[in-house]
Design a protein that fits this description.
alpha+beta, three-stranded mixed beta sheet, 3 helices, 3 strands
Length: 93
């Protein structure tokens, strides 16, 4: 059983992003809320940086563009009660 099947069994309405399965680290919920997907924030940005590297001269530029895109379009986008969580491990801050 793959990760998407496991998540679908728990919450078939959970929001999953295309090409981001590598960044999934688990499931979580707040009291009384739906079970949602938890993504590793840093790994998510790395995935976007890899996508942007073709359009940039350096990996540093791709990473900078990835952070800007991720924060504006993904991390701070509320898309309902199944919105994923992006976790930054404390040891990585």
């Amino acid at each position: 059983m793959n990760i998407r099947e496991i998540i679908a069994e728990t919450n078939p309405d959970a929001i999953l992003f295309d090409d981001m399965d590598e960044a999934i680290i688990g499931l979580g919920q707040q009291w009384g809320g739906n079970t949602v997907v938890i993504y590793d924030r840093n790994k998510s940005i790395e995935i976007f940086a890899d996508k942007f590297k073709e359009d940039n001269d350096t990996m540093e530029e791709a990473y900078s563009e990835a952070i800007e895109y991720f924060e504006y379009n993904v991390e701070y986008a509320y898309v309902g009660k199944n919105t994923p969580i992006f976790l930054t491990p404390i040891n990585e801050t």
